[in-house]
Design a protein that fits this description.
Layout: E1 18-24, H1 32-40, E2 45-52, H2 63-77, E3 86-88, H3 103-112, E4 121-125, H4 130-138, E5 147-151, H5 162-165, H6 168-175, E6 181-184, H7 186-189, E7 193-195, H8 196-202, H9 207-221, E8 235-237, H10 241-248, E9 255-259, E10 262-263, E11 269-270, E12 277-281, H11 286-303
Parallel strand pairs: 1-2, 1-4, 2-3, 4-5, 5-6, 6-12
Antiparallel strand pairs: 7-8, 9-12, 10-11
Helix pairs in contact: 1-10, 3-4, 4-6, 10-11
């Protein structure tokens, strides 16, 4: 457990804690960073390690390596370098004929197959779900030994969505597996909406990591390569943070069980009812997500001994 939690003003019962693997395309945009920090500052989560994954080849051929570097940067800024292992995941889409079990996928297998752990295992996927598909194809037995939470896809009919589009075949493998899956689709993960003014007031003041979270998003917002419609210019969707918040409180009253669809090459869904049921979220509590993040950033800053 992170030593900082010993100085938190509350305790989490040991029976409530869960093991967590964080799989992230951290260098893709600017919101993965917020989810990573929130996970690191959540006492309920026993983070076993991070896996860096790709975010497609549209902008760079080294997206996984850039994500790996970004995870390491965040840990360094929080003075947690060496506290958590960081693994390299998939550098690109799954090769259906000969899936490569990279070190990230192997880590998922090894953690899932442990017999000495009492805490349930969750793996959260904040980008393409390539590494889980590779792990499953190599070791199908992991299906009964972890729950996956994926930020991706769309409902009810599917369609274009960034995380799904970066590896459609991998998502279809996971949907066709027996892995317990919580899906947070596009219309839901876009709910936690913030303004840059809000982040300037509630994130930026809280030490080195608060300043970094705000500044990297503000700088990304100014990139000249953006389209006229996205991003909006003065706001952002914290689209990856729901995966963390649902491990704090699973909000099981705001989801439904649906048979996993088959996924076509156009990202459309075929609802045959032949596959097992998955949990699909209909909404998330944006207030809970954001206020929890703000409070933990402030606590972390104060407990580090920094003062204005």
């Amino acid at each position: 457990m992170n030593a900082i939690f010993e100085r938190f003003p509350y305790r989490v019962p040991a029976s409530k804690r869960v093991r967590v693997i964080v799989n992230t395309d951290a260098a893709n945009e600017a919101d993965d960073q917020f989810a990573i920090v929130q996970a690191l500052l959540t006492p309920k989560l026993d983070i076993r390690g991070f896996v860096a994954t790709h975010f497609g080849a549209q902008r760079t051929e080294t997206s996984m390596e850039q994500s790996f570097d970004e995870i390491e940067r965040i840990l360094a800024l929080m003075e947690m370098s060496g506290d958590y292992p960081v693994y390299r995941g998939s550098a690109g889409r799954l090769n259906d004929e000969a899936p490569i079990v990279n070190e990230g996928a192997q880590f998922i297998i090894d953690e899932a197959m442990r017999d000495d752990a009492e805490e349930p295992l969750f793996a959260i996927f904040l980008g393409a779900i390539t590494d889980l598909a590779a792990a499953y194809k190599a070791k199908p037995e992991i299906a009964g030994r972890l729950t996956a939470v994926w930020i991706g896809g769309a409902y009810p009919d599917g369609g274009e969505e960034f995380n799904l589009g970066n590896d459609i075949a991998a998502a279809d493998i996971v949907f066709g597996s027996d892995i317990p899956l919580w899906q947070v689709p596009r219309d839901v993960y876009k709910m936690p909406r913030v303004s840059l003014a809000e982040l300037a007031v509630k994130v930026r003041p809280w030490g080195t990591i608060g300043e970094y979270l705000f500044r990297q998003l503000e700088q990304f917002n100014l990139l000249p390569t953006h389209s006229p419609r996205w991003p909006p210019g003065e706001s952002w969707n914290m689209g990856d943070s729901p995966a963390v918040s649902l491990l704090i409180d699973d909000q099981n009253f705001d989801c439904e069980l649906r048979h996993a669809p088959e996924i076509g090459a156009d990202m459309g869904y075929v609802h045959s009812g032949a596959r097992r049921q998955i949990r699909v979220y209909k909404s998330v509590d944006s207030r809970f997500i954001l206020e929890d993040l703000y409070a933990k950033l402030q606590l972390f800053h104060e407990l580090q001994g920094f003062h204005f």
